[in-house]
Amino acid sequence: MLMVAAMILLVCLYPLLLLFALIGFFAFAILWSVFVKLRTEYRVKHLSIEDYEITRETVSHVRQEQYTVQKSRHRSETVVNIIVHFENGKSWRVPLENYLWCEDRSVSDGGVKATTHRGDVMTVVTHKKSGKIITAYSHEFFEYQAEV
Question: What is the mean pLDDT of each successive set of 10 residues along the chain, which is 148 residues long?
Fold first, then answer.
């Protein structure tokens, strides 16, 4: 008798528990998206040109790095990285997509490799604290002018 009562209670409560779980999941998803949006807005508001150094650098050479990553026991993937080296010793791993702010001039990493040659002058944007190159672009396509 107790077993039957427990089964009836479980059958009646199961949809209710499922409903609460779904409500909880959607509430978490909404709160998470709000958190991400606020965090992004905070980062953009606190972004300052003083955090970056903008210099002109000369390209010493462009290198292509290729290696294989094992995805599973039977599947592997070849990864290709394009790296631009500058005469000052710094190097920049070219992202897959570049110059996204300019619709007619955005290019892939392969496009950057094809258009970048030894001796080219590039504007290099470096994060001051980390020393990491954020982006670089050729003077053939863009010219940086500091605001007065």
Answer: 74 78 85 81 66 88 88 86 89 77 69 83 87 80 61
